[in-house]
Design goal:
About 85% of the residues lie in helices and about 0% in strands. With about 280 residues, the chain is an all-alpha fold. It is globular. The chain starts with a helix and ends in a 7-residue tail after the last helix.
Length: about 280
């Protein structure tokens, strides 16, 4: 049993640290401008929407029924809506000095950029929370897959790693843009991925036999709700603001097409009951 847990933990680290790979793509390049940020946010939003509706929620409804799948999905929506309620929106401090009304254009543009950076940082933190919630049950799935055999666990870990790379980009990009700190961007993206091995540890040592496949599918369905809310509430508005509505929509559908193609190839290469 211990050796199986270690194998599952090692496989989950492959998927978990893929968010770090995504972060490297961001920090090894020049900081993108606002339009590029919006396009990449739109692309990441398309990835998340595709995973949420066409994968997680879809699988949950097929596995545990339409009603239960929807209940789990909207439980995730409500949960994350409550979470975001307790995280204050970043706002600029009020300016009371009358002389401040006579700012130069340069000073005004600095304030606008400061506001942009705060908004983007908030989006990056929220994205990291959502992706951590997403990666947690994926770690559980890797553990259960590993119990069926090394090949299944390895295929599942590689499948997860595939779509964890753009998730790392989705976390690191706004944090790097807002803070100009490569270390902070890399650290937050890596921490969001470490929720995956944490899922392995919890399911292995707390309730390895009591977690039924139905509960796991329900958890994954609720994660779909979390990601859908995250995308529509945080990522799409930023994509529209910085890239423009038309360009952002194109990026969203490009992201959805990319993830849908990935999910198709994973579906034909993985066992049906273990595909994500």
């Amino acid at each position: 049993m211990e050796s199986q847990v270690l194998v599952a933990l090692a496989l989950s680290l492959v998927g978990g640290f893929s968010t770090s790979v995504g972060a490297l793509f961001v920090i090894l390049n020049r900081a993108p401008n606002l339009k590029m940020l919006g396009l990449l946010q739109g692309f990441a939003a398309g990835l998340m929407l595709s995973i949420s509706f066409l994968d997680l929620a879809h699988n949950a409804m097929n596995s545990i029924g339409f009603l239960k799948g929807n209940l789990w999905f909207f439980a995730g929506v409500i949960f994350f809506a409550v979470v975001t309620n307790f995280i204050p929106e970043p706002t600029l401090a009020p300016i009371s000095d009358e002389k401040s009304k006579k700012k130069t254009k340069d000073e005004g543009s600095k304030d606008v950029m400061k506001k942009h950076r705060r908004q983007v940082l908030f989006s990056g933190i929220i994205t990291a929370v959502g992706i951590s919630l997403h990666n947690f049950p994926e770690g559980m799935a890797v553990f259960l897959g590993s119990m069926k055999g090394l090949r299944v666990g390895l295929n599942l870990a590689l499948a997860i790693a595939l779509h964890n790379i753009p998730e790392g980009v989705a976390v690191a990009l706004p944090v790097y843009f807002a803070t100009q700190s490569k270390w902070k961007a890399f650290k937050l993206a890596t921490l969001s991925g470490l929720a995956e091995p944490l899922g392995v540890i919890i399911v292995a040592y707390l309730f390895p036999r009591s977690l039924s496949p139905e509960v796991l599918e329900g958890l994954l369905g609720s994660v779909g709700g979390v990601m859908a809310f995250l995308t529509l509430h945080e990522m799409l508005p930023l994509a529209f603001d910085y890239a423009g509505q038309k360009q952002a929509i194109k990026a969203v559908f490009f992201g959805m097409a990319f993830m849908s193609a990935s999910l198709y190839f994973l579906q034909i290469s993985l066992p049906e009951d273990l595909s994500l």
